[in-house]
UniProtKB/TrEMBL annotation:
This is Large ribosomal subunit protein bL17. Belongs to the bacterial ribosomal protein bL17 family. Gene3D superfamilies: 5' to 3' exonuclease, C-terminal subdomain, Ribosomal protein L17. Part of the 50S ribosomal subunit. Contacts protein L32. Keywords: Ribonucleoprotein, Ribosomal protein. Coiled coil: none annotated. InterPro entries: Ribosomal_bL17 (IPR000456), Ribosomal_bL17_CS (IPR047859), Ribosomal_bL17_sf (IPR036373). GO terms for cellular component: ribosome.
Length: 242
């Protein structure tokens, strides 16, 4: 039973856990993205985000408080000089966790955690939305119009896993990089896709995207019978002859 278990100890003593999280937070601040296990990434998020919030108030007291956690002068300097300016308009949620393929050997769940504002591929500046209050007598027409507007603003996505060689994890990475439809994948060359997968982590280095654009084009044109014939000639996304 897990009654009352609010903190994941990560199989370590309290002092070891604090030291590990301090080192991971320092690495995240310096490198803006690190790869670790999913459990450690979730623990790190609750550890580092309050420190980032603290950095928005650049005072001697705030710096000393953050240094008590990180114990690294360079990391504290970067946090208060660079990162605090970058996240000034963001009201929380400074980090993003994206799952990766399980680790070979022990099959541990892997993920990378990054600072949202430092991702140049699909990072966007945060906008603080003002909450609007409405009276009880508001008509249903306004609610219907708001729902239709929200549905129209939501971009359509395709099931990229239909392409031979693309699994759910790779589809998540491509969608996060802005490639969410067959047409977008067809227009993206293999080198660009390989670069995106390499940045996502070493677990995706074995993927071969050479035929993904061709398969995506057939899917975009609705030629699914021809796509199935092409997939029958492939092995893991690449041609058997190769």
């Amino acid at each position: 039973m897990r009654h009352g278990k609010k903190v994941n100890h990560l199989g370590r003593t309290d002092s070891h856990r604090k030291a590990m999280l301090a080192n991971m937070a320092t690495s995240l601040i310096k490198h803006k993205r690190i790869t670790t296990t999913l459990a450690k990434a979730k623990a790190l998020r609750t550890y580092v985000e309050p420190l980032i919030t603290k950095s928005k108030n650049d005072t001697t007291h705030s710096r000393r408080t953050v240094f008590a956690y990180l114990k690294d002068k360079d990391a504290v300097t970067i946090l208060f000089r660079e990162i605090s300016e970058k996240v000034a308009s963001r009201p929380g949620g400074y980090t993003r966790i994206i799952k990766l393929e399980n680790r070979l050997g022990d099959n541990a769940e892997m993920a990378f955690i990054e600072l949202v504002d430092y991702n140049e591929v699909y990072g966007k500046t945060a906008k603080t939305e003002k909450k609007a209050t409405r009276r009880r007598g508001a008509t249903k027409k306004k609610a219907t119009e708001a729902t239709e507007t929200k549905a129209a603003a939501t971009p359509a996505t395709d099931d990229l896993t239909i392409v031979e060689g693309i699994g759910p994890k790779i589809a998540e990475v491509l969608t996060a990089a802005g490639i969410s439809t067959y047409a977008e994948l067809a227009k993206t060359d293999a080198e660009k896709v390989k670069e995106i997968l390499t940045e996502a982590g070493s677990n995706f280095n074995t993927a071969d995207p050479t035929t993904w654009a061709e398969q995506a084009q057939l899917a975009a044109d609705g030629k699914f019978e021809e796509l199935e014939k092409l997939k029958a000639e492939l092995d893991g996304g690449k041609k058997v002859d190769e």
